Amino acid sequence: MTLSGKARLAGVMGWPVEHSLSPRLHGYWLEHHRIDGAYVPLAVGPEGLRAALSALPALGFRGVNLTLPHKEQALDLCHVVDDMARRIGAVNTVVVREGRLVGSNSDAFGFMENLKQGAPDWRAKASPAVVLGAGGASRAVVAALADAGAPEVRIVNRTRERAEALAEALAPWLGSALSAHGWDQRQAVLADAGLLVNATTLGMAGQASLDLDLGGLPPDALVTDIVYTPLMTPLLEAARARGNPLVDGLGMLLHQARPGFEAWFDVRPEVTTAVREFVLSA
Ligand code: NAP
Predict the structure, then answer these.
(1) How far is ligand 1, taken at its centre, from the CA of residue 104, in Å?
(2) Catalytic site residue 125?
(3) For the chain, first and last CA: distance in Å?
(4) CA of 40 to the centre of ligand 1 (A)
(5) If pLDDT is split at 50, 70 and 90, which confidence band does 33 have?
(6) What is the CATH number of domain 109-252?
(7) Where in the chain is the domain with CATH 3.40.50.720?
(8) pLDDT tens, position by position, 235-282
(9) 57 CA distance to ligand 1 centroid (A)?
(10) By the 8 A CB rule, do 103 and 81 touch?
(11) Which protein residue has the closest C-alpha to ligand 1 atom 13?
């Protein structure tokens, strides 16, 4: 669509930023909704983040998404940071409001919306969840599950101390029981679980695959992988082979973009098969 002089502006700041799928995704929604607006990639290095963020109001930007390596640094650069971003320890969405930068984090929302859409019958409250990994993404996943009322979240990580630190950091904010486990426990914790999440980098193209026997997992447990390259990771293939319900990780990426789009362009976009296919065809 041709832009007018009144076009609304948003974008994604990252370093590097050229691999980001966000311009393609937001561009699809802008076109689909015939919005006079643009969402652009902004290659901003770590040393330039402060200046780039503070220039947004003067440039008339409605806001930005933040990707690596800016999400943590932005906590100190926004005028206001919401509760979820504080909990997760990272900002991925910035909205300019009356000249001030308001930071939030939509990864937990994206994770949960993806499960709701992909497995509408699954209930977080029904049984314990197992989360593999204790990095940045795991933090959002654990916060989302605890918020959704999971009775117990078992965090399993190669470096057990990181799982312990994550459980300890999130415990004051959450009602769920959080427990930390070392990698050697990854099979044992599957018994009676209602959800298994891979939030490690294992299974991603170019990385080692996840070495996990699903034998002890209840047959009706939902399996999800937040890695989405490839879409059907070895974990999801294994779940499919034994008949467990599964949800792939692309939807988390698509759903986490919705709150930002709505704040900047005043339309709540949907995650449809068409937008999934469009993003996948990049
Ligand atoms: P991160 O902070 O670097 O954390 C990596 C995690 O993987 C850590 O828990 C690490 O364990 C574990 N790990 C790495 N190599 C391992 C190995 N050989 N054996 C066992 N564990 C290993 O990464 P992140 O930001 O959390 O991202 C994790 C994945 O999620 C990435 O693939 C990312 O692309 C994906 N992601 C997807 C979405 C989405 O929207 N779908 C959103 C965010 C992230 P240690 O602590 O022991 O090192």
Answers:
(1) 21
(2) no
(3) 19
(4) 27
(5) very high
(6) 3.40.50.720
(7) 109-252
(8) 999 999 999 999 999 999 999 999 999 999 999 999 999 999 999 998
(9) 34
(10) yes
(11) 200
